Task: inverse folding
């Protein structure tokens, strides 16, 4: 009896030892979404970088009766019969949505590059800035997401115009059974090729070190659509060419939006600080002190009307000597001393600091769920992202401009006994950029997804409060951020209500 | 009295993981049917440098991280060859610099069964082969994803086997264990860059890498004292990550090599005092900690 029992235990222990290796971080598998509308008038929608879709000429495609087209079509048909497992993996991956996938790739790269300069114990210094490895902190990321989605959106408007102008019928209408759901729009030019090319070029501008990796991704993306039976190579080529022209516009915009000075290598922010109209100015709480995050990001060119943006700037914060400030400080102190586990969770959930896809990335993720839930087609999802991300970049610009005007110290600087549930962002606190971005993003999202207003407002309210719970913002920071964010969001809503999309 | 002596061995060594103030659940000495012992120990542990991956660094924003823990440890002989072991630590940890708040609370409850499967006698020496199976779970929803935490919050299944050799007062024990750690839910979406995981859209649930554990322990156990020295190597079994800077991120691959010594002196009848010291020789994503502890043991 005992022998059997011991044998059993021994065997079960051995089974445990040979346990299968688990993935470190699980990724879920989501079902394909079938878009609810084709938006056939999409080619007339208002573009952002281009004056209109007509700026970029898309050449007339070869007729479907031509030998050239027919041989392409036959090749696609034959390809469908001989797909390899690798091809199927690529087909399924990209079928989730090209705008969505490239937005995910952008978030992935942001989290990869959102790494603070390392502290070197031997020299007591932080590592010097390396231009090939830009630090993708929140304003950097906000600009990246904005430019990426604007380039995708403009490229798609141009594609849509050409699609419905030339009306090359989709492959499905020519009797080809595609491997994945395909939006029933004319196949020329390929919207996937347009998104792949525009995204690849814009992201490579931000992360030159990733160019080869991005190019491989884009090539796989384009080819996957032929493997899927969604388009023929000449559709891809046209999409790629129009997108290259749009990407060039986007990169030209990026070169001239004054963001290149944001990092402020000569530390001119110190003179701004000495002139700050505030009684006690911010200093870095990192040990050793570190220059603040992108001090001149507030001078970046805005997407929306700069006069209206200027009106969204928060008013002066209460001076540290005022009862209003002392009361706000006492509130942070009390919260820090009695912080509940749930308040900690909320602070952490919305913190999106170093090493993550940043706060704008978090709202892109939330937008992605909505885009998917509402079955938006490529064009419409690009519009959603382009609106939300422009609002967020302008929101970040407003926030940074205000922060580096007043240089309001973080609560822990005024009272070092205040312990925080999140890392203290290395920049002045007023206003709360978390509150600002949350309200800018949700104002736009509520306009685009009115049925989700309740959920979105609850998310915005929680995100707004989160950094007060974390102990890194005062109540007046988050109130000012929420007001400015809503004002900036309204500018994007104004744009959206007149861009031709219903 | 002899029966309660060996508990000191396990009490004073760090066993499961860097967070486990929980003690060595398993040594080679059986309790004996219907015999029980209860131990209460206090330990002080600290580190001022830690390993990011396998590179040792210091973080001036953390300074020295120190941890105090109070451990309640009980064993009961269910049969002559089967023991039940239960452990629950109360832990407090804080950093000397920076602004991370101290964390405090009950950590994980562990229960284990130890079974002496085979017992061979060769003249005056004895060799026994034992198995143990343990399970631990967090006693509360403590913070797991910050530079200063009391644990990583996973539920663990711990299986191990050991050979215990005894010749007079001298003993030598070798054990090998595998600890399977369950997934944990973070307070946020896991979106740190991972080359293996190209979809940043995963949720909040992340896997805590499993580890293997080797312990070699040797010493003397007499009527008047017990003393041992031990060496332990814990290695990540699953690949895991090296997410920096200095955040004990749950997916990080944790490993270490530690060595230590412990002492037990019986005072009156079934009551004795115990003390121990251990230090970290090498590690991976873990604090280079040194630990000192002391307490008392009562046999019932």
Result:
């Amino acid at each position: 009896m005992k022998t059997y029992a011991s044998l059993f235990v021994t065997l079960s222990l051995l089974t445990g030892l040979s346990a299968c290796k688990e993935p470190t971080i699980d990724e879920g598998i989501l079902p394909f979404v079938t878009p609810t509308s084709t938006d056939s008038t999409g080619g007339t929608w208002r573009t952002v970088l281009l004056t209109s879709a007509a700026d970029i000429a898309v050449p007339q495609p070869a007729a479907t009766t031509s030998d050239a087209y027919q041989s392409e079509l036959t090749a696609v048909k034959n390809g469908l019969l001989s797909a390899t497992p690798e091809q199927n993996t690529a087909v399924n991956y990209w079928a989730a949505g090209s705008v969505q996938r490239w937005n995910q790739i952008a978030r992935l790269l942001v989290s990869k590059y959102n790494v603070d300069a390392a502290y070197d114990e031997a020299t007591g210094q932080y590592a010097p800035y390396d231009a090939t490895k830009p630090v993708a902190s929140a304003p950097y990321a906000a600009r990246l997401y904005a430019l990426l989605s604007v380039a995708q959106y403009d490229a798609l408007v141009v594609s849509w115009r050409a699609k419905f102008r030339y009306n090359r019928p989709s492959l499905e209408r020519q009797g080809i059974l595609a491997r994945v759901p395909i939006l029933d729009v004319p196949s020329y030019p390929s919207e996937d090729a347009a998104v792949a090319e525009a995204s690849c070029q814009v992201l490579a501008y931000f992360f030159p070190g990733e160019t080869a990796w991005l190019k491989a991704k884009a090539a796989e993306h384009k080819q996957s659509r032929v493997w899927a039976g969604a388009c023929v190579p000449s559709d891809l080529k046209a999409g790629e060419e129009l997108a290259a022209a749009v990407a060039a516009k986007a990169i030209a915009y990026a070169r001239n939006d004054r963001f290149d000075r944001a990092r402020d290598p000569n530390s001119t922010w110190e003179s701004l600080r000495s002139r700050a109209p505030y009684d006690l100015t911010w200093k870095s709480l990192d040990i050793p002190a570190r220059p603040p995050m992108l001090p001149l990001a507030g001078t970046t060119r805005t997407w929306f009307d700069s006069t209206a943006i200027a009106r969204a700037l928060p008013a002066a914060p209460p001076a540290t000597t005022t009862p209003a400030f002392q009361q706000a400080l006492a509130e942070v102190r009390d919260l820090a001393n009695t912080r509940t586990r749930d308040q900690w969770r909320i602070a952490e959930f919305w913190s999106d600091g170093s090493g993550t896809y940043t706060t704008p990335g978090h709202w892109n993720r939330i937008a992605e769920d909505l885009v998917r839930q509402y079955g938006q087609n490529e064009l419409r999802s690009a519009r959603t992202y382009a609106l939300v991300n422009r609002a967020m970049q302008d929101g970040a610009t407003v926030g940074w401009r205000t922060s580096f005007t007043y240089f309001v110290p973080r609560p822990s600087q005024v009272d070092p006994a205040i312990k925080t549930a999140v890392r203290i962002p290395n920049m002045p606190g007023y206003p709360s950029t978390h509150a600002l971005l949350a309200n800018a993003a949700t104002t736009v999202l509520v306009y685009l997804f009115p049925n989700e207003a309740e959920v979105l407002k609850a998310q915005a309210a929680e995100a707004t409060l989160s950094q007060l719970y974390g102990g890194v913002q005062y109540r007046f920071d988050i109130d000012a951020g929420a007001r400015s964010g809503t004002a900036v969001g309204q500018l994007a809503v104004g744009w959206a209500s007149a861009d031709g999309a219903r | 009295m002899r029966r309660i002596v060996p508990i000191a061995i396990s009490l004073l060594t760090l066993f499961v993981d860097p967070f486990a103030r929980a003690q060595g659940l398993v040594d080679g000495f059986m309790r004996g049917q219907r015999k029980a012992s209860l131990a209460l120990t206090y330990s002080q542990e600290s580190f001022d440098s830690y390993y990011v991956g396998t590179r040792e660094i210091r973080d001036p924003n953390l300074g020295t991280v120190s941890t105090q823990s109070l451990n309640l440890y009980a064993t009961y002989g269910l049969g002559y060859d089967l023991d039940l072991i239960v452990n629950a630590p109360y832990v407090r940890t804080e950093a000397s610099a920076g602004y991370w708040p101290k964390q405090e609370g009950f950590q994980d409850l562990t229960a284990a069964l130890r079974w002496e499967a085979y017992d061979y006698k060769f003249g005056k020496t004895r060799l026994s082969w034992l198995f143990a199976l343990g399970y631990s779970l967090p006693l509360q929803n403590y913070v797991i994803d910050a530079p200063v935490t009391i644990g990583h919050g996973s539920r663990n299944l711990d299986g191990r086997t050991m050979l215990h050799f005894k010749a007079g007062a001298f003993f030598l024990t070798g054990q090998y264990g595998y600890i399977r750690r369950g997934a944990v839910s973070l307070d946020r979406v896991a979106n740190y860059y991972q080359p293996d995981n190209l979809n940043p859209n995963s949720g909040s649930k992340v896997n805590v890498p499993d580890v293997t554990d080797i312990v070699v322990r040797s010493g003397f156990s007499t009527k008047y004292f017990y003393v041992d020295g031990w060496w332990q190597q814990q290695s990540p079994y699953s690949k895991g990550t090296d997410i920096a800077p200095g955040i004990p991120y749950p997916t990080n691959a944790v490993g270490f090599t530690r060595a230590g010594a412990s002492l037990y002196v019986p005072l009156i009848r079934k009551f004795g005092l115990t003390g121990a010291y251990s230090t970290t020789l090498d590690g991976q994503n873990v604090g280079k900690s040194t630990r000192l502890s002391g307490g008392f043991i009562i046999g019932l």
About this structure: Chain A touches chain B through 56 residues (CB under 8 Å). Residues 273-496 of chain A form a domain with the Vanadium-containing Chloroperoxidase; domain 2 fold (CATH 1.10.606.20). Confidence is low (pLDDT under 50) at residues 13-20 of chain A.
